[in-house]
Design brief:
NAD(P)-bd_dom_sf, NADP+ binding, disordered C terminus, alpha/beta, 12 strands, six-stranded parallel beta sheet, Epimerase_deHydtase, isomerase, oxidoreductase, Rossmann fold
Length: 324
């Protein structure tokens, strides 16, 4: 019997590599990957030819251009264009070539800036987005609607999962273009090495964020992909097909920094530059749906940061790149 051929788009990034690890641990499938030099996902012709040639059965669409507040504010055109092109090309080519199952990886920035907390799936498109990453969020919302539209028109089973803020091995630790957790890890680690007596952090430290280790996210993604269609549909609708993935627990940026300093062993001061933007005041996902479906996160924040720091210590070379 032939194994299921599973294409993981974005397998070199933090999310995609975690999904590859999760799939390898469960077995029973043949994993197909291509790096950017082999397949440019923003090129429609290349993507269509890839699907025509490879006879793919399932797709995990984890490829994306990602970054923190600075990167989103500096490169808004790149963020909206690249992400729209990746989503459109992969989802369209998958459907054209009779791929019935696809899982699209989202971002919680798609929810309104001032959405009621915790944010459940019905918050989508009910208010204004956070201005600092609106182009990225618009692109990711379009990805959800692409999946829903191909389901409605072509009878596909394309699902979307909405992870909260992710961190873990293979994250982007660029000093300017990374998200808050890896940026803090690098900054505090370097301060410890150089003997600096303080670390300056953007914002006030008061915004609240939820953090999910990427291995938990990958486990949840495989869980959702493998759910029976009737069970998945019982917890979604044709016009609201996405599922939140998170811990259901948040903390302030100050608390994150304090936990990070404890894990790293840094004893200096944490100083907040209040002239820099905070972003959304609070981002906590309502994870009641996925918990009712039978999945819960298993890695707490301190444990996850310790795992990530151990990985970081062994992989510091080449960490100044922006990842795709």
């Amino acid at each position: 019997m032939n194994k299921t051929r599973v294409y993981v788009a974005g397998h070199t990034g933090m999310v995609g590599s975690a999904i590859v690890r999760a799939l390898k641990s469960t077995g029973g499938c043949e994993i197909v990957t291509r790096d950017h030099s082999e397949l440019d996902l923003t090129n429609q012709k290349e993507v269509e030819e890839f699907f025509q040639d490879q006879e793919i059965d399932q797709v995990y669409l984890a490829a994306a251009k990602v970054g923190g507040i600075y990167a989103n504010d500096t490169y808004p055109a790149d963020f909206i264009f690249d992400n729209l092109m990746i989503e459109c090309n992969v989802i369209h080519a998958a459907s054209n070539n009779d791929v019935q199952k696809l899982l699209f990886l989202e971002s919680s920035c798609i929810y309104p800036r001032l959405a009621p907390q915790p944010m459940d799936e019905t918050c989508l498109l009910t208010g204004e987005l956070e201005p600092t990453n609106e182009p990225y969020a618009i692109a990711k919302i379009a990805g959800i609607k692409l999946c829903e539209s191909y389901n409605r028109q072509y009878g596909r089973d394309y699902r979307s999962v909405m992870p909260t803020n992710l961190y873990g091995q293979n994250d982007n630790f660029h000093p300017q273009n990374s998200h808050v957790a890896p940026a803090l890890m690098r900054r505090i680690h370097e301060a410890k090495l150089s003997g600096d007596n303080e670390v300056v952090i953007w914002g006030t430290g008061t915004p609240m964020r939820e953090f999910l280790h990427v291995d938990d996210m990958a486990d949840a993604s495989v869980f959702i992909m493998n759910l029976d269609s009737s069970e998945y549909l019982a917890n979604t609708s044709p016009m609201m097909s996405h599922i939140n993935i998170g811990t259901g627990i948040d903390c302030t940026i100050l608390e994150l920094a304090q936990t990070m300093a404890e894990v790293i062993g840094y004893e200096g001061r944490l100083v907040f530059d209040e002239s820099k933007p905070d972003g959304t005041p609070r981002k906590l996902l309502d994870v009641g749906r996925i918990q009712r479906m039978g999945w819960r996160a298993s890695i707490d924040l301190k444990e996850g940061l310790s795992m990530t720091y151990r990985w970081y210590l062994g992989h510091q070379a080449g960490m100044n790149k922006v990842t795709m």
